[in-house]
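[Discussion] Sanity-checking designs against the backbone

I'm trying to build intuition for which residues belong where. Below is a structure token string of 70 positions. I'd appreciate it if someone posts a full sequence so I can compare it with mine line by line.
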């Protein structure tokens, strides 16, 4: 699972994350690997358990998850 996060105050988050996700998915395809854009984690990030796990994985104060790739 790859989690893409950025500073919440940055205005162009979704565009940048979308470009990164597309490039990773194209790379997976080139390597004959499947991939799946997992968007649910973005909608669950206000959950305390999810926040704790994201901090454990290195998410810093002021950052938000915008997408994840499996």
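Best answer:
Here's mine. Compare freely.
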């Amino acid at each position: 699972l790859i989690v893409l996060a950025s500073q919440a105050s940055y205005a162009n988050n979704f565009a940048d994350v979308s470009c990164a996700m597309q490039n990773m998915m194209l790379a997976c395809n080139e390597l004959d690997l499947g991939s799946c854009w997992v968007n649910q984690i973005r909608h669950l990030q206000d959950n305390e358990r999810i926040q704790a796990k994201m901090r454990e994985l290195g998410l810093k104060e002021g950052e938000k998850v915008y997408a994840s790739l499996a």
